[in-house]
Amino acid sequence: MIRRSLLLFLFSIIINQVLIAQVLPKEGSQLNYRIVGFSFPVAKQTNQYKIEIASGNYYSEDSFKRNIIKTIDCKTGNTIGEVPAFGKQYTWRVNYVSREPQTKNELYHFSTGIIPEADTTNTRLKIINAAKQYNDAYVFVDGGRALYDMKGNPVWYLPYIDGAYTAPRDLKMSLMGTITFLLGAQAYEVNYNGDILWKGPDKGTVSGDTSSEYYHHEFTRLANGHYMVLGDENYSKKLPAAEKDNSQLANDKLTASPRKTFGTIIEYDEKNNVVWSWKCSKYFLNSDIANYKGPESHKGLEVHQNAFFFDENTKMIYIGFKNISRIIKIKYPEGTVVSVFGEIFQPGISEKGNGMFCGQHSCGVTHDGYLYVFNNNDCNWPDYPSIVMMEQPISEQDTPKTIWEYPCNLQGITSGKQQDNAKKEFHRTGGGNVIELPDGSMFASLYAPYSNVFIVNRNKEILWNAIAEKWNGSEWTPNGQYRASIITNPKDLERLIWNQEKSSASGVQ
Fold it and tell me: Most confidently modeled of 12-16, 17-21, 36-40?
């Protein structure tokens, strides 16, 4: 009898531990989001449940009931609900609804954290034009390290990773239901909770520098689960002049500063192995760059690789070089150059500009095969930045043609005085990006001094427009985001939420 009682006692402990493990949010946890995945044990006698959420931290039935702010009806043990604010405490429970009187579970507790970037008295996304489409989309703004709904409410923020308080770059959701971004010269993948799942090995295998690969600008997780990121090559040596090529002449044109002259693209598998890489030095040292004259103020030329787009359907990679206003198209995995978009420099002839884009910052390919870029338009001040869409050449004899362009002179854009001041600093206008949406509309962001984030359709109608702003103590000023990204399908957000318990991968060091 004693043995049987002991077994029953041990069994009840095991069952309770299993049930507790199934409860989300975890008891006492602090969340970096307001859209919460609630998970709880199901009961055999019912498929109807009611979640009750109270504002505050309570342990008594009466106090809890007096402060209920929200109820959610559901039929499974997993549902999603939104709580009102960051920096608050919440108590919740699930009621099991059946023919019998409702069975009420115990009270659970969690809180939402807060950082200055998620505090709307400090940082905000001001809506200029309400959404006409994509009303239920969500937008990542990397300068604000946050995810916003289309009404400008922050619903998630990126916690401070590895003690770094600097703003991330290229913050976006991956195809795997995770979040990727760059922080400093490091690449990260995290889950919804902000737990690190993968971190770039950064061993200098490709750069030739044992201290770093110098990850920068763009980091993407591919459909096969691999990771692709831009890096820099530790190149400082002089190449001997090769007979019948331009390598020495090109080398003399380019700055000898390591890491900043030549870019790389690196593909890693989930176990941190380099499975493919490409170095732009092999292209430029035997290219028309030898004919580049450049401004007299330049002691040399930094081509500044700043974007890539991998078209996995055609196995082509498009790579952007801002300072020479050029995009090249290479075949994957061969690495051979297929097309060049931009001016080809001729011997003895000064640069004219390519007439399509200047100082571009991102590139992509539309569903119907057009190349598009975010054009900072630095060569044509005081013109606004623009989105440019180009027809791709069919043969080497063809030249790219602009088929669609949208000048970003948006409603609510920053005052002319601020634009003038910022334009004097060349690199202040070096950010921004553009992404094609499922219906062919374009989602884009502008860097300082504009800081607009918007959607425009092919008819050039603004479908949504907002400005990222920061309070400086006396007024709201533009909060320059380097890039922005969008989640257009709420089902993708759900996948991100339910991946929150994904365990860390081998890439974490």
Answer: 36-40
Alpha-carbon distance of 106 to 137, in angstroms, equals 34
d(CA 244, CA 246): 7
pLDDT per residue as tens digits for the range 341-357: 998 888 877 788 888 99
The domain of 305 spans 116-498
Domain shared by 356 and 282, yes or no: yes
Between 221-235, 406-420, 458-472, the lowest mean confidence (pLDDT) is in 406-420
Long-range pairs for 473-480: beta carbons < 8 A, 24 or more residues apart: 476/124, 476/126, 477/418, 478/414, 478/418, 478/448, 478/449, 478/450, 478/451, 479/123, 479/143, 479/144, 479/451, 480/143, 480/428, 480/431, 480/447, 480/448, 480/449, 480/451
232 in any annotated domain = yes
* Element housing 420 (H / E): helix 416-423
Summarize pLDDT for 374-422 with one digit per residue, the tens. Answer: 999 988 877 889 999 999 977 665 678 899 999 998 888 765 555 555 4
What is the C-alpha R_g of the chain?
26
Backbone angles phi and psi of 230, in degrees to 5: -80, 145
Say whether pTM exceeds 0.70: yes
Which residues fall within 8 angstroms of residue 50, CB to CB, at 6 or more apart?
71, 72, 73, 74, 94, 95, 97, 102
**Under 8 Å between Cβ of 198 and 188:** yes
Quick check: is 274 in a domain?
A: yes
Residues with Cβ within 8 Å of 7's Cβ and at least 6 positions away in sequence, in order, are: none
Beta strands 371-375; 179-183: pairing state: unpaired
Same domain, 358 and 246: yes
**pLDDT for 137:** 98
CB 164 within 8 A of CB 187: no
DSSP 296-327: TT-SSB---EEEEEEETTTTEEEEEEGGGTEE
Residue 108 CA to residue 90 CA, distance in Å, equals: 8
Residues 469 and 394 in one domain: yes
Out of 275-284, 331-340, 448-457, 497-506, pick the least confident.
497-506
User: Burial level of 251, CB count in 10 A (0-12/13-18/19+)?
Assistant: buried
* One domain, residues 255 and 229: yes
Output the six-digit token pair for 73: 């009806």
Distance CA 85, CA 119 (A): 10
Per-residue confidence (pLDDT) for residue 400, from 0 to 100: 80
Which CATH number fits the domain that encloses residue 86? 2.60.40.10
The whole-angstrom separation of Cα 392 and Cα 335 is 19
pLDDT band at 255 (very low <50, low <70, confident <90, very high): low
CATH number at residue 388: 2.120.10.30
